[in-house]
Amino acid sequence: NIPVLLTDSEGTILMHRNFSLPESVDSLSPLEISDRNLEFLRNKLADMRETSNIIEINMGDAGSQYLYYEDSRLLKALSYYPYIQIVVLVTFILIVYYAVSSTQRAEQNKDCQKRQPISLAHRYPLSWHGWSCLITWESTRTL
To answer: pTM higher than 0.90 for the full model?
Structure first.
Protein backbone atom coordinates (compact mmCIF):
# COMPACT_ATOMS: atom_id res chain seq x y z
CA ASN A 1 0.00 0.00 0.00
CA ILE A 2 1.39 3.34 -1.06
CA PRO A 3 0.69 6.24 1.32
CA VAL A 4 -0.82 9.20 -0.61
CA LEU A 5 -2.08 12.69 0.22
CA LEU A 6 -4.27 14.74 -2.12
CA THR A 7 -4.19 18.52 -1.60
CA ASP A 8 -5.55 21.53 -3.40
CA SER A 9 -3.39 24.39 -4.68
CA GLU A 10 -3.52 26.08 -1.26
CA GLY A 11 -2.18 23.01 0.56
CA THR A 12 -5.44 21.92 2.19
CA ILE A 13 -5.57 18.16 2.63
CA LEU A 14 -8.51 16.82 0.65
CA MET A 15 -7.93 13.09 1.01
CA HIS A 16 -5.44 10.61 2.45
CA ARG A 17 -4.87 6.87 2.09
CA ASN A 18 -2.67 4.16 3.59
CA PHE A 19 -1.18 6.06 6.52
CA SER A 20 -0.77 4.57 9.98
CA LEU A 21 -2.62 7.30 11.85
CA PRO A 22 -2.12 7.86 15.59
CA GLU A 23 -5.88 7.53 16.24
CA SER A 24 -8.23 5.14 14.50
CA VAL A 25 -10.68 6.60 11.99
CA ASP A 26 -14.39 6.54 12.82
CA SER A 27 -16.04 4.10 10.42
CA LEU A 28 -19.35 5.99 10.50
CA SER A 29 -17.78 9.24 9.33
CA PRO A 30 -14.49 8.38 7.60
CA LEU A 31 -14.11 11.87 6.07
CA GLU A 32 -13.87 13.54 9.47
CA ILE A 33 -10.31 13.75 10.74
CA SER A 34 -9.47 14.17 14.42
CA ASP A 35 -7.16 17.00 15.43
CA ARG A 36 -4.35 14.60 16.30
CA ASN A 37 -4.63 12.82 12.93
CA LEU A 38 -4.82 16.14 11.11
CA GLU A 39 -1.63 17.33 12.80
CA PHE A 40 0.05 14.04 11.87
CA LEU A 41 -1.03 14.43 8.23
CA ARG A 42 0.16 18.04 8.11
CA ASN A 43 3.57 16.98 9.36
CA LYS A 44 3.65 14.22 6.75
CA LEU A 45 2.67 16.74 4.07
CA ALA A 46 5.50 19.04 5.13
CA ASP A 47 7.94 16.12 4.84
CA MET A 48 6.50 15.03 1.49
CA ARG A 49 6.78 18.51 -0.01
CA GLU A 50 10.55 18.28 0.32
CA THR A 51 10.68 15.19 -1.92
CA SER A 52 10.17 14.89 -5.66
CA ASN A 53 7.28 12.44 -5.29
CA ILE A 54 4.58 14.89 -6.39
CA ILE A 55 2.05 14.58 -9.18
CA GLU A 56 0.27 17.75 -10.31
CA ILE A 57 -3.32 17.25 -11.46
CA ASN A 58 -4.65 20.05 -13.62
CA MET A 59 -8.39 20.48 -12.94
CA GLY A 60 -8.93 23.11 -15.63
CA ASP A 61 -10.77 26.20 -14.33
CA ALA A 62 -10.97 24.67 -10.84
CA GLY A 63 -7.20 25.00 -10.43
CA SER A 64 -4.70 22.31 -9.62
CA GLN A 65 -4.49 19.51 -7.12
CA TYR A 66 -1.35 17.79 -5.95
CA LEU A 67 -0.91 14.12 -5.17
CA TYR A 68 1.96 13.43 -2.77
CA TYR A 69 3.12 9.86 -2.31
CA GLU A 70 5.74 7.87 -0.39
CA ASP A 71 7.38 4.52 -0.91
CA SER A 72 5.44 1.59 0.48
CA ARG A 73 6.59 -0.18 3.64
CA LEU A 74 7.54 -3.20 1.54
CA LEU A 75 9.78 -1.11 -0.71
CA LYS A 76 11.43 0.51 2.33
CA ALA A 77 12.04 -2.94 3.82
CA LEU A 78 13.51 -4.20 0.54
CA SER A 79 16.04 -1.37 0.59
CA TYR A 80 17.77 -3.18 3.49
CA TYR A 81 18.02 -6.44 1.55
CA PRO A 82 21.43 -5.74 -0.09
CA TYR A 83 22.97 -4.97 3.31
CA ILE A 84 21.58 -8.17 4.80
CA GLN A 85 22.87 -10.08 1.79
CA ILE A 86 26.36 -8.60 2.26
CA VAL A 87 26.38 -9.56 5.96
CA VAL A 88 25.39 -13.14 5.10
CA LEU A 89 28.05 -13.31 2.37
CA VAL A 90 30.79 -11.97 4.66
CA THR A 91 29.75 -14.45 7.36
CA PHE A 92 29.94 -17.30 4.86
CA ILE A 93 33.39 -16.15 3.67
CA LEU A 94 34.65 -15.97 7.26
CA ILE A 95 33.39 -19.49 7.98
CA VAL A 96 35.08 -20.82 4.84
CA TYR A 97 38.30 -18.98 5.71
CA TYR A 98 38.28 -20.42 9.21
CA ALA A 99 37.68 -23.93 7.87
CA VAL A 100 40.49 -23.66 5.32
CA SER A 101 42.96 -22.17 7.80
CA SER A 102 42.13 -24.88 10.36
CA THR A 103 42.72 -27.53 7.72
CA GLN A 104 46.06 -25.97 6.77
CA ARG A 105 47.14 -25.81 10.42
CA ALA A 106 46.24 -29.46 10.89
CA GLU A 107 48.22 -30.33 7.76
CA GLN A 108 51.23 -28.40 9.02
CA ASN A 109 51.06 -30.13 12.38
CA LYS A 110 51.17 -33.48 10.56
CA ASP A 111 54.32 -32.32 8.72
CA CYS A 112 55.96 -31.46 12.02
CA GLN A 113 55.31 -34.92 13.40
CA LYS A 114 56.32 -36.89 10.27
CA ARG A 115 59.60 -35.21 9.30
CA GLN A 116 62.50 -34.01 11.26
CA PRO A 117 61.83 -30.34 11.88
CA ILE A 118 65.49 -29.50 11.32
CA SER A 119 65.12 -30.31 7.64
CA LEU A 120 61.96 -28.23 7.47
CA ALA A 121 63.68 -25.26 9.10
CA HIS A 122 66.58 -25.50 6.66
CA ARG A 123 64.32 -26.05 3.69
CA TYR A 124 62.18 -23.03 4.55
CA PRO A 125 64.59 -20.69 6.35
CA LEU A 126 62.25 -17.71 6.28
CA SER A 127 59.17 -19.77 7.05
CA TRP A 128 57.51 -19.40 10.39
CA HIS A 129 56.18 -22.91 9.95
CA GLY A 130 59.64 -24.47 9.67
CA TRP A 131 61.01 -22.70 12.71
CA SER A 132 57.90 -23.34 14.79
CA CYS A 133 58.22 -27.04 14.00
CA LEU A 134 61.87 -26.95 15.03
CA ILE A 135 61.07 -25.24 18.31
CA THR A 136 58.23 -27.67 19.02
CA TRP A 137 60.42 -30.65 18.15
CA GLU A 138 63.30 -29.42 20.29
CA SER A 139 61.04 -28.81 23.27
CA THR A 140 59.51 -32.31 23.05
CA ARG A 141 62.94 -33.92 22.51
CA THR A 142 64.44 -32.48 25.67
CA LEU A 143 61.63 -33.83 27.80
So the answer is: no
